[in-house]
Amino acid sequence: STDDAGSGSTSDGSGSASSEDETTVRIGIPSGWDEGIAVSHLWKAVLEDEGYTVETQTADIGILFTGLAGGDFDLMFDGWLPLTHASYWERYSEDLTDLGVWYDDAKLTIAVNEDSPAQSLEDLAAMADEYDNRLVGIEPGAGLTETTIDAVIPEYGLEGMDYITSSTPAMLAELSAKADSGENIAVTLWRPHWAYDAFPVRDLEDPAGTLGEAEEIHTFGAADVMERFPELSTWVEAFELSDEQLFELENMMFNDDAYADDLDGAAAAWLDANPDFVTDLKEAAQA
Amino acid sequence: MTENHTEIRADGAYKVFGRRGAEAVRRLRSGSTRDEVKPLGTAAVIDASFEVRKGEIFVVMGLSGSGKSTLIRMLNGLWRPTAGSIHLGDDDLATVSPARLREIRRTKVSMVFQHFALLPHRTVLENAAYPLEIQGVPKEQRRERALEALRLVGLAGWEDSVPGALSGGMRQRVGLARALAADTDVLLMDEAFSALDPLIRREMQEQLLELQSSLGKTIVFITHDLNEAMFLGDRIAMMRDGRIVQIGTAEQILSEPADDYVAQFVADVDRTRVLTASSVMRPSRVVVSISGGPRLALRTMEENAASAAFVTDRNRVFHGTVTDTAVLDAQRRGDADLSAVVEPDTRQVHPDAPMSEIFAPAAESVLPVPVVDDGGRLVGVVPRVRLLEAMSQTTSLDATPSTEDSL
Amino acid sequence: MTENHTEIRADGAYKVFGRRGAEAVRRLRSGSTRDEVKPLGTAAVIDASFEVRKGEIFVVMGLSGSGKSTLIRMLNGLWRPTAGSIHLGDDDLATVSPARLREIRRTKVSMVFQHFALLPHRTVLENAAYPLEIQGVPKEQRRERALEALRLVGLAGWEDSVPGALSGGMRQRVGLARALAADTDVLLMDEAFSALDPLIRREMQEQLLELQSSLGKTIVFITHDLNEAMFLGDRIAMMRDGRIVQIGTAEQILSEPADDYVAQFVADVDRTRVLTASSVMRPSRVVVSISGGPRLALRTMEENAASAAFVTDRNRVFHGTVTDTAVLDAQRRGDADLSAVVEPDTRQVHPDAPMSEIFAPAAESVLPVPVVDDGGRLVGVVPRVRLLEAMSQTTSLDATPSTEDSL
Amino acid sequence: MNDPIIRIPVGSWAESAVDWLTSTFSGLFAFIKTVLGSAYEGLDQILTAPPFWVVVLVLAGLAWWVKSWKMALGTVIGLVLIQTMNQWDNAMHTLALVLIATVIALAIAVPVGILAARNDAVSRVIRPVLDLMQTLPALVYLVPMVLIFLTGAVPGLVATIIFAMAPGVRFTELGIRQVDREVVEAGEAFGASSGRILRQIQLPLATRTIMAGVNQVIMLALSMVVIAGFVGAAGLGSDVTRALSSINIGLGFEAGLAVVILAVYLDRVTSALGTRSAVAKAQTAAS
Amino acid sequence: MNDPIIRIPVGSWAESAVDWLTSTFSGLFAFIKTVLGSAYEGLDQILTAPPFWVVVLVLAGLAWWVKSWKMALGTVIGLVLIQTMNQWDNAMHTLALVLIATVIALAIAVPVGILAARNDAVSRVIRPVLDLMQTLPALVYLVPMVLIFLTGAVPGLVATIIFAMAPGVRFTELGIRQVDREVVEAGEAFGASSGRILRQIQLPLATRTIMAGVNQVIMLALSMVVIAGFVGAAGLGSDVTRALSSINIGLGFEAGLAVVILAVYLDRVTSALGTRSAVAKAQTAAS
Ligand SMILES: Nc1ncnc2c1ncn2[C@@H]1O[C@H](COP(=O)(O)OP(=O)(O)OP(=O)(O)O)[C@@H](O)[C@H]1O
Ligand SMILES: Nc1ncnc2c1ncn2[C@@H]1O[C@H](COP(=O)(O)OP(=O)(O)OP(=O)(O)O)[C@@H](O)[C@H]1O
Ligand SMILES: [Mg+2]
Ligand SMILES: [Mg+2]
Prior knowledge:
The complex is a heteropentamer, with 1 copy of chain A (287 residues), 2 copies of chain B (407 residues) and 2 copies of chain D (287 residues).
Chain A: H1 2-16, H2 18-21, E1 24-30, H3 34-49, E2 53-59, H4 61-69, E3 75-81, H5 86-92, E4 96-113, H6 121-126, E5 134-136, H7 143-156, E6 162-164, H8 168-181, E7 186-191, H9 195-198, E8 201-203, E9 215-222, H10 225-228, H11 230-238, H12 243-255, H13 263-273, H14 276-286
Parallel strand pairs in A: 1-2, 1-3, 5-6, 5-7
Antiparallel strand pairs in A: 3-9, 4-7, 4-8, 4-9
Chain B: E1 6-17, H1 21-29, E2 42-53, E3 57-62, H2 68-75, E4 83-88, E5 91-92, H3 98-107, E6 109-112, H4 124-135, H5 139-152, H6 168-182, E7 186-190, H7 198-215, E8 218-222, H8 226-232, E9 235-240, E10 243-248, H9 250-255, H10 260-265, H11 271-274, H12 277-280, E11 287-289, H13 294-303, E12 308-312, E13 318-323, H14 324-333, H15 359-364, E14 369-372, E15 378-382, H16 384-391
Parallel strand pairs in B: 3-8, 3-9, 6-7, 7-8, 11-12
Antiparallel strand pairs in B: 1-2, 1-4, 4-5, 9-10, 12-13, 14-15
Helix pairs in contact in B: 4-5, 4-6, 5-6, 13-14
Chain D: H1 10-24, H2 26-48, H3 52-66, H4 69-84, H5 88-118, H6 120-135, H7 138-149, H8 153-178, H9 181-189, H10 194-223, H11 225-230, H12 236-245, H13 249-275, H14 278-286
Helix pairs in contact in D: 2-5, 2-8, 3-4, 4-13, 5-6, 5-8, 5-10, 5-13, 6-8, 7-8, 8-10, 9-10, 10-13, 12-13
The structure holds adenosine-5'-triphosphate (2 copies) and magnesium ion (2 copies).
């Protein structure tokens, strides 16, 4: 049903300035998803260097999927599969192009502060009191939240704990507050995430594997992205980041005061520090 | 009076405030009193029927709360009668279309509100020009006519003030100027002069009479001031508890009050302004003919034990007075008639002269004041005692003549 | 009068509306006119100085916009004078603390507003009881006193209505009842009767006089009604363009107007209510002593060419009248004094009787009306011609005596 | 584009201010947290513990009392609809939160509005503060608030109170200022204290405007449910967020509809209370 | 706890309704999108294209014209502060969005409010609709709106208009209903048409109340910036969201402060316009 409106407006755009189509890329940046923000800005820097005009738009992740499927964006770098964004993928897969995985070590976690007693999720039920009987979650309806409710809590008998769904910022704020005050805390989290660098936290073991295997972060494109950006598509398909690269990038962007709120500056600085990144990428794309 | 001389006609108009007005009207019609229907609503106007002629000033009086404002507000359709009908010219205000009603209000009838109802956000000038604005009068002309109206009510120089910065009486005059500026045939004035001081009030009253006589305006005027009512009103309607209890001229109301209520109501009136020479005069008994000769004159005077007489000719045209001594002289001289001894009487008054104008001539001489009509005919005389009787409220106007000497 | 009999005192009070009031006052003091300072603000009250005695009714009159309301509002501190001072009792309203001002208003002074200023959300009863509520009167008593006040103003039965459902005059009476219920020593009444019909108005006026005389209330009363002013006012202040141009009793104002403005202002007054017997009476020339014997009496009558005489004793106590024929009889009988022939005169009036009450006795007989004071003494007589002269406005009150026969 | 010439570090000052506040007033904050928290818990218990039809009947009874049986019937229909959409508990959590927030907001707003009406200086000072409270995005102060109050109902309550309060102040001020000067003078002339004038004249005559402000307070409080959910307050907000994350239009609509039903109910009740006021009665009588 | 006995599938009906709407009115929606989109683009261009000091001077000049040089000075200080916080472009995007949303909201709200004031039936019908618009969480209809309008300024605009409109209607109605009956009768008595009475009597005398409603419309519009950012409208909202996800209180505060500065500016300008109205002038003169 979105096709009508979506393709309609897209063809309007291409009709008026067809030559630009090849050079103007619209990237949707998911608000609140730090790795997505980081990578989007990295790509913005790269593509601008390559002569593309890059338009970015920050929106909620659900909105981004909807927009991407409607042809409102060309690229979106933060699709978590198989679990987290499964509901979006189910709904919109026909109207999306999967441009491959750029990070495959993502995973959902339950994290606690470094010096707290629990080591694994199995301990948590027994030690609930140590954690004020609270497990702090993120948005209700997020993949992580649903997994926690559907799998983690029943598996480890955590029904006795208050599982507080709120929002990612609230969860992080509480994490930060407790970290400062030295109280114990248990939160739902995921990797990669800058919080691991910023706060003394560690993951609880998940012997039953309820949080699922490692997740992959995909880049999704609009349905016709391959036709419209043949070259760019190959670069994106070849794109990969290692743990270190991603952490370094996120750190520069979110934790380094030098680039306090200058994401593009941070991306450029990171590219300067990794001069091979683009050439490697192009090579890989040719292969 | 014929139909097309009637400007306003009310036929059995009722106004009941409250949800169950219709029911209240039904009961009132079948004889219930106002108090009895109180639970159904306040019957402000009950069965009002009257006509106001073109060019007439129709005054409405009555106790506070007797329904005067309610009545006048029905005359331009601001309030609809609960029952009965109101005609303004040929339009029945109950059935007229809203567009026609607006047109009537624009062109035919304007109103002075009891509580002024000025537009607080507009200047005095803009308030006065408001009806003209609605009538679509061009700006420059509007301004001129509004200024003229303001000048009439003595507010020149205050054009640019807002109503909030005016005194009570000044506000009322703005309301007045607004209605005057509208220049409609019919003026509804709800206690339009109540906040005015006597000087301005007198001016306004004269202004109103002037408007009526020169432009033939029809005016319905509510007032509590008896003297004003008597002075202005061609006819006066007296209301009581929602009903019209009497309609008549000032003199009718004063001299033949329909009931004690009306009588009491007008008790305080300044009779000197209302009663005219014709209403206090008596037929003169001591009249002699100028051609009748001294002997006849003396006999008449003797019969009436009077020392002077009024002299007329055979057409009753008034020539003056003669005293007994002068007539005796004439008789001695052997005059054939009285023309040599008659002295013109400068004290003569017109039959319509208010009593207040008879006091001065009456004080000049012990002789009664002759009342002389437009044709110069002697129609009666006003002896002093008549004046005193008329002034003394305890004595009714047709009291038995006193024992005083009178011609 | 001594200081502690003064209830209200204004000393050079000014009120100028507008931002630059102080500057305007400075200029006015140094001789500028009201119009000249108009750009600085409206000078509503200029240099007002007067005193109101305890138990006095002080009436303020003047053209609309002359500053009456502004003046009265300064008397309870609602508006502060721009310059000068206002004393209420011993308190200077300009410097008194807010708490004391509130207390004064609660206990000492209440007000009837020109535009009523009722509380629209409260019933008539609650409105009337409002000052009592503020005074902290217990509920039951409050209700009773408010009901009493409403009864006084003729609104019994309307307790539970809201002001919005009342006619203009009824609203004014609620404001009146509210001030009366407050039962304070000082009453400020700003055109308190303007919307009332004559019947209720007369009642209210009498009520007010009653209040003043029985409870010794001090009343400042603004009115446009000359007769009301003359009837009520112990003294009357005439205002013009912000200034007080004359303060005096009704008769002073009427007989010695300070200027043309005042004279014109009072021209329309109904003199019969204002002028009293004492102001129109003349010394009686034909007075005989009851103990003086018939012969003396006859001589006096002859000298004055009168056919009757008033009889007094040596203390000038009035005994009645004698006619020449009766005295002749007495002389024939050889009476030593007149006691056998003197007839009591029922027409006698008090010196304070308004002229309106003299007309009836004057009409009864040709004899002048005797004016007799509280001690029974004959202080003068009112011949008919005097009445007529006083009524004729063109004739001034001290016109030369007419030629009429008079005792 | 328009880069700043000098960069004023307002942001970091704000951060220090928050730090300072948090440490200095921790006692006060703990107190607020306890009071608000237990008030909410209490009311929440009252609303959620009984069977739903008991609550429905009580609320319908209230509607009957303030207005008419028609409104009572409407109430029953609306509330039963919430129940059949399986949003009952959420709705009651939200109702508890909104009621408490509204009461507190009004308890602060009305006196402040009165002050502002009587004093031009206060009015001038208060105005930008109200602008701030109403427009500073809740998210901005929510994070610091989570640092102070942790996640749960309390930060949600505080945010709601802050956001919803402004119209209460504004319309109290406006209402009082609009009262006819002469009627106030009548009060003064009879020696009424300013408190009395306020209670007996100004407030009654300002009722309609103030009640319109109260209505806005309630509406704004209800519009904050999603934000409250963001910091972990239970209620309809979480279902809305959940719906958004999973592009579940149906669920979002149901939760949203439940909010609207509450809104209509509260609106009707408050406006009925408004028209029961003395003035309104007087006006009806006079027409 | 309180499980429903019967489950009414309101949610799925809503989904079908959205589908139906989307397909049926796609032409209309495309039109709306074009109009709103280009209006926003145009205004945004005007505000962002010139050097910032030009815009500052123009806005300060406006402040001077409507009020005083003091207000102009305040404007300069506030706007320069925004610039030094590096929020200029965002602020201008937001200003453009808020201005357009406000103008449209008022263009609808005032006539509707007038209708409601003159007709009790309309008033009764409109009231719950307003409740709905104000309290139905924007997130609920944002997703369908993205389906219709895709991401960007337009859905943000529409959501803002919907949310902000209600007080405009309510206070127009209230203001008109509060106008003294007798003054309206004066208009009638002289034969003014109801349109004239409206324009020349009711609206001028209701100005203060209506302007308070306008103020609320603006405040609510500004309070929607974050939500607008959610669907990808550019502006301060995205920085607020970004700040949150990194618990960057400073950045959030700066963006928030920029919103508040705009709010104070718009508040002052509208209230100055209100006091320039005829009535206000009359009232000042009379005091
Ligand atoms: N609030 C005000 N602001 C500005 N000017 C005012 C105000 N009130 C009165 N005035 C001005 O002060 C002058 C005196 O007004 P005031 O109300 O005292 O007159 P008044 O003698 O009571 O007249 P009236 O008999 O018409 O009631 C008038 O010129 C009026 O315009
Ligand atoms: N809007 C209203 N609602 C209910 N009752 C009303 C309304 N207006 C007037 N009344 C009632 O109708 C009756 C007549 O009122 P009206 O205003 O016509 O009297 P009036 O003769 O003009 O008196 P006044 O001389 O005091 O102005 C009164 O009893 C009053 O209470
Ligand atoms: Mg009336
Ligand atoms: Mg006055």
